[in-house]
Amino acid sequence: MQLIMMGAPGAGKGTQAAKIAKKYGIPQISTGDMFRAAVKEGTPLGKKAQEYMSAGKLVPDEVTIGIVRERLAKDDCAGGFILDGFPRTVEQADALNEILKAQGRSLSSVINISVPLEDLIERGVGRRICRSCGATYHVKFHAPAKENVCDACGGELYQRGDDTAETMQKRLSVYESSTRPLIDYYKQSGIYAEIDGKQKIEKVTEDLENVLHSVKG
Ligand code: ADP
Ligand code: ADP
Ligand code: ZN
Predict the structure, then answer these.
(1) Is 84:11 a contact under the CB 8 Å cutoff?
(2) What are phi and psi of 149, to 5 degrees?
(3) Beta-strand runs (E) in 118-204
(4) Which one of the listed residues 36, 71, 127, 128 is annotated catalytic?
(5) Per-residue pLDDT for 164 more than 90?
(6) Of 40, 70, 127, 177, which has the highest C-beta tally within 10 A?
(7) Residue whose CB lies within 8 A of the most ligand 2 atoms, among 138, 159, 167, 171, for a mutation test
(8) What does the pLDDT average to over 195-202?
(9) Residue boundaries of the structural domains of the chain
(10) How much is the average pLDDT of 170-192?
(11) How much is the pLDDT for 214?
(12) Which of 160, 170, 180, 198 is the catalytic position?
């Protein structure tokens, strides 16, 4: 299964992609996670990405497409994958089609998690992430049993530097201008499905699984 999980910043892509990856045994490929790992390691890629990320802007297409191209060539993607946060521009979507075509495969499904704009800032600002295992929480909507401690591994939770109200606002406007057009792009492909992301996390997962039951290849 070659899947794309689409949605605005804070829509729940990462939360849902992690569950699908586990259930179907396919890798979750999050460009945001890959950039954050590079920033942490202080690599040249990380230094470049950091400038854009902290400003709430998109990392340039040629950089982003390059890391996804390399990632999709790895052995663990042979049985499928779930892209979380890529593509985010029409140029990235075109490049993805080419990458997959060269590999003799294509997308199975594009799932868009739809959440009203007014809910997204609160989702982003309340997001907390485990430093050790990367699990995602929310101070109000998905709180850990013990404040700032990961339920899964006991690790410390932190808030991303770009999850402030101000940078979320900027990211949402970038989403509107650069990423939302992809909805029409994929609607024409016949493999597009939309899910109501305003529902509780578990209900979104249920709807997602119902969509995936009817997806082939
Ligand atoms: P969210 O889903 O909350 O927007 P991500 O972790 O997916 O957060 O992305 C964080 C940041 O990483 C983005 O604001 C952007 O700077 C960069 N980024 C992630 N994916 C892409 C992409 N496909 N193209 C360009 N930049 C990206
Ligand atoms: P994205 O990857 O699309 O940016 P995340 O999966 O990181 O989004 O979710 C953003 C924040 O919203 C996280 O704090 C997460 O726990 C929370 N969240 C995810 N799905 C829901 C939901 N259905 N209802 C309420 N909060 C949610
Ligand atoms: Zn953890």
Answers:
(1) no
(2) -125, 130
(3) 127-130, 136-138, 157-158, 192-196
(4) 127
(5) yes
(6) 127
(7) 138
(8) 98
(9) 2-116+174-216, 127-162
(10) 96
(11) 86
(12) 160
Q: Is 171 in the pocket of ligand 1 (CB under 6 A)?
A: yes
> Is 180 known to be catalytic?
no
160 a catalytic residue = yes
Contact partners, residue 215, CB within 8 Å, separation at least 6:
1, 3, 108, 109
- Is 80 exceeded by the pLDDT of residue 168? yes
Q: Let me know the angle formed at the C-alpha of 82 by 18 and 190, rounded to the nearest 5 degrees.
A: 130
For ligand 1, whether the C-beta of 32 sits within 6 Å is yes
pLDDT for the residue 216: 67
Which atom of ligand 2 is the closest one to the Cα of 15?
A: 6
Taking residues 30-53, report their average pLDDT.
96
End-to-end CA distance of the chain: 5
Per-residue pLDDT of 49-98, as tens digits, reads 999 999 999 999 999 999 999 999 999 999 999 999 999 999 999 999 99
Helix (H, G, I), strand (E, B) or coil at 10: coil
Question: Which of the following is catalytic: 13, 71, 123, 128?
Answer: 13
Q: What residue owns the CA closest to ligand 2's atom 12?
A: 123
**Is 171 annotated in the active site?**
yes
- Confidence at residue 17, expressed as pLDDT on a 0 to 100 scale: 98
DSSP E strand boundaries for the chain:
2-6, 28-30, 81-84, 109-114, 127-130, 136-138, 157-158, 192-196
Classify domain 2-116+174-216 at the CATH topology level: Rossmann fold (3.40.50)
